[in-house]
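INFO batch 0412 | record 1 of 1 | parsing
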Amino acid sequence: MSANSFGSRSTLQVGDRSYEIFRLDAVEGSARLPYSLKVLLENLLRTEDGANVTADHIRALAGWDASAQPSREIQFTPARVIMQDFTGVPCVVDLATMREAVRDLGGDPTKINPLAPAEMVIDHSVIVDYFGTPDAFERNVQVEYERNKERYQFLRWGQTAFDEFKVVPPGTGIVHQVNIEHLARVVFDRGGVAYPDTCVGTDSHTTMENGIGVLGWGVGGIEAEAAMLGQPISMLIPRVVGFKLTGELPAGTTATDLVLTITEMLRQHGVVGKFVEFYGEGVAALPLANRATIGNMSPEFGSTCAIFPIDGETLAYLRLTGRSEEQIALVEAYAKEQGLWLDPAGEPEFSEYLELDLTTVVPSLAGPKRPQDRIAVSDAKATWRRDVRNYVTTGYGPADEASDESFPASDSPANSQNSPADRPRAAAATVGSRPHNPVTVKLGDGTEFELDHGAVAVAAITSCTNTSNPYVMVGAGLLAKKAVEKGLTRKPWVKTSLAPGSQAVTDYLERAGLTPYLDKIGYNLVGYGCTTCIGNTGPLQPEISQAVNDNDLAVTAVLSGNRNFEGRISPDVKMNYLASPPLVIAYALAGTMDIDILNDPIAEGADGPVYLRDIWPAPEEVAEIVTSSIGQDMFTKNYADVFKGDERWRGLDIPTGGTFEWDPDSTYVRKAPYFDGMAHEPAPVTDIHGARVLAKLGDSVTTDHISPAGSIKVGTPAAQYLQANGVDVRDFNSYGSRRGNHEVMIRGTFANIRLRNQLLDGVEGGYTRDFTQDGAPQSYIYDAAQNYAAQSTPLVVLAGKEYGSGSSRDWAAKGTALLGVRAVIAQSYERIHRSNLIGMGVLPLQFAAGESAESLGLTGTETFDIVGVEALNEGGVPETVTVKADGREFTAVVRIDTPGEADYYRNGGIMQYVLRNLLRK
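INFO prediction complete | emitting tokens
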């Protein structure tokens, strides 16, 4: 409990209940702080203990200098932790392993227990194997249980073995939507103390909760485990970017168009490591669903959070989603008492300022490979024709009606890991030409058609980003209705799917009478989960897949998700676009990206050509159905027994006991190796000598590149391991589903099919040069790492800018560490991955400003020495170290940013640090 140096304890009376609170106005300077920093200040007041949190920390935050660069460390204690199954299963594996490690070192294993609510939603495991049929949902769920039975049994054991740990079973919804609709408290009431709900999650899009005023963000699984065990999160007091919204969205635009515009603006501005906070009159006019969409895509901006203060719109949403009147009254009274209530006319002090007039937002999509690459829909055809030249080397036909001016100059960075711009281009490719390589395909049912570059092979309404928003979902349903009435349906080569974030979505679509129309054009329910957004697209029809691969067709995917990185959506699809749900359906009807969808007919209807304007719903239509079709009863019914699950879930056999009985034959769940041979005290940190380069990578390397979540390719080390353990190819499942097995995940590290290791020329996939072998031949990265390990050779990775962007995937750091990588040297890092590397005992180093591997002449063939790391043994953190590489010498910045992170690194990782602390207590 707080040491209460500021006399801040007080009582808040709400109706007939009284709550203890820690008053912000007891601290001088608190009133001028932005909303997000006020929440952090309350956190420090309540957790002040004179050690981790002191009065000086509180004064430092209250006296925040908006113009200063972050330098002061504070300890943030989140109220709860939320997980999804891909990242959550390894968390529970680690906790189970920690229990055994504590026992083996003479401690009490039951002390390994979450100290605050830890909730998991199983949403990442359903794959779209079946689509376009009335029974698609039931069949996909059945396959999901067959594939994941071992994992689900393990999670059910965890639910019984650990206090404060609850699991939302499969088929319920997507974690972030379930969070804002049900799990989020906004204001906590625990033991008679009221305080702001704060929550970190093992998924980068945890920031969706920012839309309802909950401060939180995505962290790696290892950091989440520490938080569950009561370890505060070490952070620097951040810079806060104020983003002013004015005006209202024009007719014909959606929340998706808005968030893609904001993503583009904030990426250009630069907000990595910063808080973003929205304010202004435009916020008050913004529906809660739109706020949640913006919060959800905070990782795509690069910011730590993207938060909205509490106001009447927040209360209305809490009431709609079935929160109790007592809870709603507490939220309102607490927010107003503590200065956390939105003042639309006010302007708090911020570090930096941006502004957007909502009336300037235009219909947009983003692609073909990054969320920040926004395209006005009016430019989509010309931009596709420009970008496809990076993916197609043959098949260019004569110029058509498009003029040279239709093709914006390419701005793709040639050295970008996430850009294919360095691939060979066709000699005949000129501005104004288009690729043309029609291939005749005949399906098993006799359907015959031509497939060409630009064909939309996947059109998926997926992801919590947009399916949580009733305006865009009802808009999609109305567009489907009008399309059916005009005699339209999806093109036969398009794989369509509808995977909402919660059961409430299907309830209101059904109540509005829109479901039959969605079904008729192929948008049958396929599951409640992330599906296509995380690469669980499932296979294309075999005839289509073969035609695409045999003829090297650059087909496309259009999805209502938040990520469109290369190799993520489908191995058959080269170009991926993000769009609103109505626009996703429009492209499914058109069947191609090579269309001016605003002006060309999208399809031939029963009475002639049909244009998008003929079927696009009016805002008034959408609003009327949203108002009349969505009720509180949907949420109270669907969440009444949210942890109970269906008969399949309840019928699973559950192992018993406080420690888990590992099955030696399991290929899904295995005891983690992180504590093998761990001593009570850590060994001294050492410099790194004789290291070789495992991979030399370009810019924008994502955690998908480092640790893919999708399918396991036959012939790769992970596939070889599974087949050696008796797993048939059809039962490989995905990397994401096997994150509880380190043997699979080590072999899958750097195994993305689109990874480009610059140690090799023109090669994609998980390969490197193996300098332990004569001639340094091409080898799988895993195989080479094993050879280096046999010679006790440490490894390094060289990288460009934005290393580790994307998902909060802790396996991107775990796999890196287990391969034997001691250090990464990059031009810059995304926040979560840098933190995860330290949490696994990997040293993140940064090239000095203006320098890179290329500018220093590094080829990756050198042997590296890194000197100066041992200074960490003296208690501080050196600002730089010296790197020597075959006669070259340069200085690298040490990106251990806080004293807490230094403690983690000295212990070999955050889990070892926490475990040793528990044993000392």
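INFO post-check: The chain has a mean pLDDT of 92.
INFO record closed
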